[in-house]
Amino acid sequence: MDDSETLHRRARLRELVNVRFGGEQKNLLAYILSRTGKAANQGELSLLMKDNSGKSFGDKKARTLTEQIGLDRRWFDMPVKSGLDTAAPKVGSTPHVTQPAAVQEPHNDYSVVLDTALEMAKQAQEVGQMWLALAPNEKQRIKALIKSLVHSESDQSDSNILDAARRQTSKQVRTQG
Asked: Which pLDDT does position 9 carry in this prediction?
């Protein structure tokens, strides 16, 4: 059985989802993903919203959620119906979340994240199709090249490794051609 503090926090979370996220947990989850780059657990969120679910909603969890959403650190302990006008973006007539005044750090809205993910998926599919079209000896050569670059460039950033891979591939293409 939940104590009064936990029941209050659950009520505040339901209120936040209903008022600022169109009553949809998925909108809150997408917003957290856009702010943090990390997906929140939908099952945990559902349990946090449900009275007497057995899921703890203590200070640590409240603090984590306020950080993920960009709320005042004591937001879940404030009175019901307070702070909702600036608590988080209001989802409604626009197809994407806009940045609220209460957000403490600037982040892209989730539509940008989704667009980027979709573009990356398309690129991955194209790379996969190109890989399948390669002859087995070409695949082995590319694997060896990547492996040697990763080991020789281990102290460099990913972009530097990719640049080195492009240079090495260009050299090999020129010598073969």
From this structure: 92
